[in-house]
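Lab notebook page, bench 4
Experiment: in silico fold of construct C2
Operator: M.H.
Input chain length: 730 residues
Purpose: comparison with the prior construct
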Amino acid sequence: MLSTNNTNDVIHLRAAGTSLVLDTRGTGVPSIPHWGGDLGELSPQQLSDLVRSRERAIGPSSIDEPLRLGIVPLLAEGWTGIPGLEGRHDTEGGRVRRPMLRTESIDRPAPNRVVVTLVDVTTSSSVSQSDDATSSTDVVTLRLVVEFELSPSGVLRSRSRITNAAPQALELSMLATTLPLPPIAQERLDFAGSWAAERAPQRSTIDYGTWLRESRRGRRGHDDSYLTVAGTPNFGFRHGEVWAIHLGTSGDTRMWVDRTADGITTLGAAELFAPGEVRLATDESYETPWAYAAWSNTGLDGLSERFHAWFRALPAHPTTPRPLTLNTWEAVYFDHTVEQLSRLVELAADVGVERFVLDDGWMTGRSDDARALGDWRVDPVTWPQGLTPLVEQVTSAGMQFGLWVEPEMVSLDSELAREHPEWILRDDDRPLPKSWRNQYVLDLDIPAARHYVRDAIAALLDEYAISYLKWDMNRDLLGGSVLRHVQATYLLMDELRERFPHVEIESCASGGARVDAGVLERVQRVWPSDTNDAHDRFSIMRWTNLLVPFEYLGSHVGSSPAHTSGRSLSLSFRLATALMGHSGIEWDLTATSAEEREALRTWAGTYRSLRKLIHSGRVVRGDGEDDPIVTGIIAADSADAVYWITCLATPSDSVRPTRRLPGLDPHLSYRVAPVDVGAPAETYPGTAPAWWVDGEITLPGAVLDAVGIDVPLLHPDEAIVLRVTKITPR
């Protein structure tokens, strides 16, 4: 390990076409002269010259030295944008004292990891009794450790750990990751949304001032900003230079793009603390979650490639083929009967389901959403023999059995709430928060409460052959400490996973209100939205996949009309769209026709043949095109690919469209053929090109990318799927 004090080094981290240059010279807070494209192998002198070339001039009406944007921007350094650190020590009289940091050490424990230790120092004066001489001593009042790590895929991670070294308590208000953006970053993209309409993109120019998004829900929320992207004008999926940041926590967040009057632009992320939520006594520390950032000069697809590689390297990443899943929610809701569910199991096995998940409604008295949360006992009326007969039927049919739980919640009408009302999360000495879906949050920061839930879930996992938990969270917090709740929830997940490593967890939060890198360190699936309307779901999956790879993203075939929207959609469109992710079914199969079940059977076989590719490939998206929209997944060796051609609106032209298939190897030739998803797409008569009628076409990758192929003129809300495979020369 290299450890230096008052270092004169300029540190250069490189990986996967990305460079991070860290200027650690002197005793001030280090800065980042460059984060972006790979600069190549640079000598120490070249790195020094790079830093010198980036030094700012002293502007009019400014501090009397060049303004330097440190890795922890501070007002004391002349920074007037969002600070990287805010807090105060308890002092008499409310005296204001802002931190002034200096470098204590620079460590490089690995080639692509740097640890910077900063200290805030006060001067203590004392008078000698022997000669009345005055001496001064530097006293450290806080220590801040900032880590940077550049992954093999080019994802930059950063986190901070702050330690209070003063005798007074330290109340922390803000501890951020702040990264510089170049002047060419002129546009911003992030996300909004609502229930059943998550990850709705919104973009604008980057103007002077702060674009700040805050989440105060106790979970990321359906309107989560998710991923904040800055880029060159008109950046798209396949073009433009872009920089992005995501904060790896399921709690409250602040995400921003900041452009000051000095012309400096930054990209930032931090937890949003409630007043007094982080209060450190002497020698106590607090560590932030990781912030994840990435750069690309190939547009948004380049970001996805980096982030997907990162998630696929996580220890919790699923290693087995993603089983085709049936969830019972929209089939039966709370109306559980042994007969209905037994018939559903039979039909699920018949169409090719590999995992059967019993959703909400199995607990004692759980006939609606107003009762029984927290008791976690099987209803003896509905299930006189417990879940054993159903579980045995499922596993005997060759399927895995999964169970819905909501461990963080409690109903007032429950044995748990009656026995332990003090376990309901609230602000100290305050009334209960407002109810939400007739439920409240359990204070998992109370060890006894967390242990109760852990043991109740563990008892179910011990008794039954459960291989999967759908972990739901159906409300915002509205009270108590968000930070402590998130930490306790993670601990509960970790404890259960450690004891039952074979049990996978899906994170659901009223759909997609908890999709983040923090929970994805612990789960094997997330539920992106409660809507199974394929029209809405297409956009949700497309944008959620910008950060998270498809194998994590549940994607189910629902009924028509859709339960969330009332929209009627063709079976072919619903089947094609549900292939885009970890596929499943959320449909009452007992109400389906023999023809529909045959279509599902074909679709299930198609999913099994494509899932290895879908769950490991590189995602590409068509740029600059209206309907139909192109989405592709290409194998790492470019020998295999699958493309969706999706039409969401009525075609504006009466002629069949031409669509390019981006991302293929230009030096290879490919066979392009339609995929049978179980039902034919609805097209306008007479618009099928000759190759479609013939069943396939062969073209070089360069032609498919640069020229494309004609595809049938699709009805609105319709899609086709194409398999593109390398032709091996004879």
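Observations: The radius of gyration is 28 Å. The chain has three domains: 72-312, 325-614, 620-726.
Next step: discuss at group meeting.
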